[in-house]
Here is the input.
Amino acid sequence: MKKSLCLLLAAGSLWANASFAATPTEVRVAYSGGSQVLMLAKADGSLDKALNSKVQWVQFASGADALSYFASNAIDIANFGSSPATAGIVRKLPVEIIGVSGVIASYERLIGKEGIHQLRDIEGKRVAYPPNSTAQYALEAAISVNKLDRSKITLLPLRPAEMVAAWKRGDIDAGYVWAPFAQELESSGGHQVFATKDLQKDGYLIYNNYVVRKAFAEQYPEAVTAFLRVHQQKVDEFKKDPERAAAIVAKEVGAPVTTAANTLGGLEYPTLSEQGTATWLGNGTQTSDSGIGKALSKTSDFLAGIGEIRKRDIPANWDSAIDSRYIRDAAATAK
Here is the structure.
């Protein structure tokens, strides 16, 4: 009797520990300082509630910073650009793509000073970009597809805040960057010359993605699925009332409402259901041939071409880089 009771208590203890392990006590979510629908979940605490965990929000300046945080095991989930995410995967960081937070349309754009009215006008000019970012990828792609003479363009890698300062000093003639920095350049005498959406007709899919530490996802798969459901809920909130959403996000990130509205509206949002198809992350059987798989191939070739990564490090396939099961589970259980 005593032995049976001990076994029963031991089993109960194991069950309790397993249940506890299924819910992390803390989830470290990294985000840029710009406006994004995820900030709606930060403002109302809905992500903490959905995960049944304390969310530690970690802000970064660029995708390169997000990679550094992943490398030092300082974050669990991050929202940042496809270009640095690709670089991190090729460099064998133990991370994977679990969803698309937004396709970049007009959110990132080239801002030029007087005398720069079309893309070709940047020849002979000084053009800044944030290094290892989707903005750099878009700028280089624009130069390539429009057959500009790259040798005639002085390309300067600057962090966004540094770019604004350089612009105001007169050190640069144009900058390719995202909001709110793009608006700062525009308010200081600049105007839009080119937007990332202009590359879609040339077959470039440039986006922001949710990336997770593999060890975290394997230990807490339900938390990852819940995270993606919250993303879709906040996209729905934004679409239902864009003005209200922009006001909330603007207050959360300390930006003007017009800037938040411009940024949120400058992204396209594929649904959870759409993302679990071949057009996006795939259904789990055609990962490398999915839309994101093909985008990873194209992006990695570009990064190798500019010396950001080594060609020989690019994997033969992306099966371990993309995991669509969480997005498909989120779509199946979304209310």
Remarks:
- The chain has a mean pLDDT of 92.
- The longest strand covers residues 95-104.
- Residues 2-21 form the longest helix (20 residues).
- The radius of gyration is 21 Å.
